[in-house]
UniProtKB/TrEMBL annotation:
InterPro entries: JAMM/MPN+_dom (IPR000555), JAMM_MPN+_peptidase_M67A (IPR050242), MPN (IPR037518), RAMA (IPR040843). The gene is MPND. Residues 230-365 form the MPN domain. Residues 16-28 have a biased composition (Acidic residues). Residues 13-38 are annotated as: Disordered. This is MPN domain-containing protein.
Length: 459
């Protein structure tokens, strides 16, 4: 992955930040002709009328506000879900329409309004009421769908809670808002999945396989700047790659680090593997609490997540794209400023990889164009600087041994004495891949031999 060396223009970054807030621009989207709340209703299908009907908001005079570049705008929420601008009496059908109109009065070059993220109802962003609606009413329409959202949402809440306690002495007031989407990740099949180009997807189709893989675009290809720089520790890659090699099933984990608003640099310093089965809801709370405590004790923040495609390309599926967009929204909505959320996919056993090294793909999702709110988000490759650590830390070694113990009796444990290809065993494969993330101190190899011997004893 290339290293971005140029300094991004502040105005371009700010514009990107504002555009990214509009993760749900399709207020008038089709509700998928479903009956009852048990059906799948996407975030884009929720309108002000839905929030009014279900009592999350109430009509009223002056309850809606926009603050943009020093200017304040006030609106009335009408009984039919429309917005009346107090100053002129104009009626707008959606938050985006009103926000776009107001922002263009201040900045004629403004292309979108970021309505749900810009408009506040009684001081709180509308997007937060939308997320509350999802938490309150949405239930999965299939037995196995996106477990990572469950852990990520609750983990975000815990990390914010600990952060607020940590900084309470400075009287730093933080708005804590979270939701738990009670869903699980479906297990991939071993059949070959051919990636498709994003431009071939078009409008969302409920009949399309959510496991369809999508090729990544470049920021430059969609006329964007990457709005942040990323640096990832080699120990993060080593632990993540080790975790993904242990099982033929998908795994998930989280990324801890720091976000510097001044330099727009996201530094990923720790990986936190989830030692749980993807369909095990009962263990989720214990896992997220343990990870949160580890984040807190190390003074780190939740900055992203990773998961594996054991035998397939390390490219996002349609389901991964939606999960990443949800994670970006939750993390961005955790404070008053922009904070990126990095997604990483690791493909350890895909035979299309070059050599024994796993393919590791950092990615992000750009919302679809405002005029096409029912399209999928656009998955883009994130350019990353990989920083080589000097040592293999005791924290990483401890996590590796805990993973060995966890998967020791697992039915989907990789058989390391079997062959990955005619001249390479699974053990050779994992050793070769991990050597790509080796710390500068070569003493690590002796330490890892102990780990490998534990893997061999599990067969």
């Amino acid at each position: 992955v290339c290293v971005r060396e140029s300094v991004f223009l502040s105005e371009a970054s700010r514009e990107m930040e504002e555009d990214e807030e509009e993760l749900s621009g399709g207020e008038e989207a089709d509700l998928r002709s479903s009956s009852g709340r048990g059906s799948l209703l996407t975030r884009r299908g929720i309108t002000l009328r839905v929030l009014l009907k279900d009592g999350l908001v109430e009509p009223g005079d002056g309850v809606l506000t926009i603050h943009y570049l020093g200017k304040n705008f006030v609106g009335d929420l009408l009984n039919d879900g429309k917005i009346r601008w107090v100053e002129t009496g104009q009626i707008f059908n959606s938050p985006s329409a009103w926000a776009t109109h107001c922002k263009r009065l201040v900045n004629p070059a403004k292309k979108s309004g970021c309505g749900w993220a810009s408009v506040r109802y009684r001081g709180q962003k509308l997007v937060q009421y939308k997320t509350t609606w999802l938490h309150k009413y949405q239930t999965p329409n299939r037995d196995l769908v996106c477990f990572s959202s469950l852990l990520f949402s609750s983990l975000l809440f815990y990390s914010l809670l600990f952060s607020s306690l940590l900084f309470s002495s400075t009287k730093c007031k933080k708005q804590i808002f979270f939701t738990v989407t009670d869903v699980m990740v479906s297990r991939r099949t071993d059949r070959e999945r051919i990636p498709v180009r994003y431009c071939t997807l078009g409008t969302r189709d409920a009949a399309r396989d959510p496991h369809t893989l999508v090729e990544l675009s470049a920021f430059s290809a969609i006329n964007r700047f990457q709005p942040f720089n990323v640096a990832v520790s080699s120990n993060v890659l080593l632990l993540m790659d080790f975790h993904c090699h242990l099982t033929t099933s998908e795994v998930v984990g989280y990324l801890g680090g720091r976000w510097d608003t001044n330099t727009q640099l996201l530094t990923v310093l720790r990986a936190f593997p989830c030692r749980t089965r993807l369909a095990d809801r009962d263990s989720a709370s214990a896992v997220e609490e343990e990870i949160c405590q580890n984040l807190f004790l190390r003074g780190l923040s939740l900055v992203g997540w990773y998961h594996s495609h054991p035998r397939g390309p390390a490219l996002p599926s349609l389901q991964d794209i939606d999960s990443q967009m949800d994670h970006q929204l939750r993390l961005q909505g955790s404070n008053n400023g922009f904070q990126p959320c990095l997604g990483i996919i690791c493909g350890p056993y895909y035979h299309g990889n070059q050599g024994v090294a796993s393919t590791i793909t950092p990615f992000w999702v750009v919302p679809p164009p405002e005029q096409r709110p029912n399209d999928y988000g656009i998955p883009v490759a994130v350019e990353v600087t990989y920083v080589q650590d000097n040592f293999l830390t005791s924290d990483v070694l401890n996590e590796m041994m805990l993973l060995v113990d966890y998967y020791r009796s697992a039915p989907d444990l990789v058989q390391f004495n079997q062959y990955w290809c005619p001249d390479t065993t699974m053990m050779d494969k994992i050793k070769g891949s991990l050597s790509c993330h080796a710390p500068k101190d070569q003493a690590y190899s002796q330490i890892l031999e102990h780990v490998y011997s534990q893997l061999s004893s599990m067969q």
